Description:
Structural class of chain A: alpha/beta
Low-confidence stretches of chain A: none
Oligomer: homodimer
CATH class of the largest domain in chain A: Alpha Beta
Shape of chain A: elongated
Largest interface: A-B, 46 and 47 residues
Amino acid sequence: MTTLREVAAAAGVSMATVSRALAGSTIVAARTRERVSQIAAELDYQPNRAARQLVTGRGQAIGLVVPDLQNAFYASVATGMQRRVRAAGLNAMIGDTDEDPARELEVLSQLAMVCDGAVLASSRTSDADLAEVAGRTRVVLVNRVLEGVPAVVGDNADGMAQAVAHLAALGHTRIGYAGGPATSWSDARRREGLATAARRELTADGVVDLGAFRPGSAGGIAAADRALANGVTAILAFNDQLALGILGRLADRGVAVPQQMSVVGFDDVPVARLLAPPLTTVSVPALEMGSAAVDLLLSSEEPATRVLPVELQVRRSTAEPARHSGRT
Amino acid sequence: MTTLREVAAAAGVSMATVSRALAGSTIVAARTRERVSQIAAELDYQPNRAARQLVTGRGQAIGLVVPDLQNAFYASVATGMQRRVRAAGLNAMIGDTDEDPARELEVLSQLAMVCDGAVLASSRTSDADLAEVAGRTRVVLVNRVLEGVPAVVGDNADGMAQAVAHLAALGHTRIGYAGGPATSWSDARRREGLATAARRELTADGVVDLGAFRPGSAGGIAAADRALANGVTAILAFNDQLALGILGRLADRGVAVPQQMSVVGFDDVPVARLLAPPLTTVSVPALEMGSAAVDLLLSSEEPATRVLPVELQVRRSTAEPARHSGRT
DNA sequence: TTGAAAGCGCTAACAT
DNA sequence: ATGTTAGCGCTTTCAA
Lengths: 328, 328
């Protein structure tokens, strides 16, 4: 590894001049700067990040904490985040918490030691703890809002409104909501949006709360069974991960989608369109959320909440309800 | 931030003693160690990683380079890798290359600056470049083998043998192989395994090379169309990502799976079982590959290649071929 | 415009 | 068993 000192020696100038030249400082003579840059390149000089961080205090990486990388939504957020970070010449560090809220702070503080800041996706940490962390570390939230902390979120209420409007237009009058984890901020927002939309489009008992489920196939089984027991004609799932599980269970139980049951997801993960039937779902710009979060982290503006638009993708997992589900 | 110096002052000992005590060195008196640890805890002392790295040379993180985090297989490798890394008290840094082989070295060298070592998954870099990198940085390969570099791979040949045996037993005599990227090491191994198995189970023209495709839905469309044009009764896909695209295209073209076409994938990503029909595929222990790679990286043994067993999961995307596919 | 010098927080010889 | 000391590679005052 070539060091600054070696470059300085080769160029016949001081270390300070090399440091300034390489940083592009204008106070160093243009000719000197050029020569130094060239020699540094020849020697294949790579600055030692640890040394730089030690003296500047500023790090070289940005962290991302997600509940589960295997959820395609978070994989997309990670991809978007990572592209932006790399474009800024920094590194991305990613940690997942295995859907365990308790591990969130642990992972974050571990990342924070080497990171300038971190993006926290779908945090389930309490407001108080979160505020405390945000006080110590530069943090941007994704899919969560907290006063004074910058955040990027999808328009949850509007997404639910679109989904309900679509189902109502098809003629559904009893819709089941398969909720996400109880501590999920997005789930709370989606429930609110759902309630508002339901008041507008449906009768009082138009929405049935199926309960709270862990995204994944286990949760999907429970959710689908509850939906069937409740006699709803459509299921609105908290996210695609859960909708996937629901679809699987319905297929196992011989329930035809969309003929006997309509299913709507949320997120529009890439596989959604490849399922049979292709899943009707609310498309959330996950890649953009990741990059926008990095922008917020890197910019020095006031903490702001960026709400990204979402859009229902109508595919083939939704249709008119069966006329007489009992007969025929 | 509390520093070592402050802890030393508070404890009334030298910095060196604190350093040793906190490192758990046995040469420091037990009582001293205890007192120092307690004071450090009271002061909420957190060692500065940059300073430590600067002096020891050893970093604090382990890197992972994958072609595409949105491919569920790599997301699983990342998860497995990450759990192991965190269990070792280190951080994981993940970078993806957007399936661009050229970016691989770039991402790796960026990660290498702050990492003790890196796991390189499905590298498509040339042997020469890879050997050069492995000389500079501690590297473990996943899904790639190179003399002198530790590696974790799935048993590609055996996987193909199982898949071919399954299809042959069902009565298929013309199988199309939808290959992966030309520079993919696993694709080459899978082709070899396929050829060997075909010699044993099928006639000379039993396997049709459909070509090389990029995993994803675009590649799947091309692959499915080629398969249909070639009159094969079964498609063996390089990986699930590609199989997903194939399934999607077949559905679009009204080809019933498995009645008119059988499809077999490779990897067994979590959604494979949730597709309609559930995908028959070769299960590869992705999580384990990730953690095994970290083990290899952290251990100081001789470079070894760990071959992990794979197992065909027969689901419902495969069946006997139609008797007379032309008629009826 | 350039250089000298003082650390950033920590570890590891070496000395006691 | 503990302390002293000399840096790790870099940035950044301060002085020239």
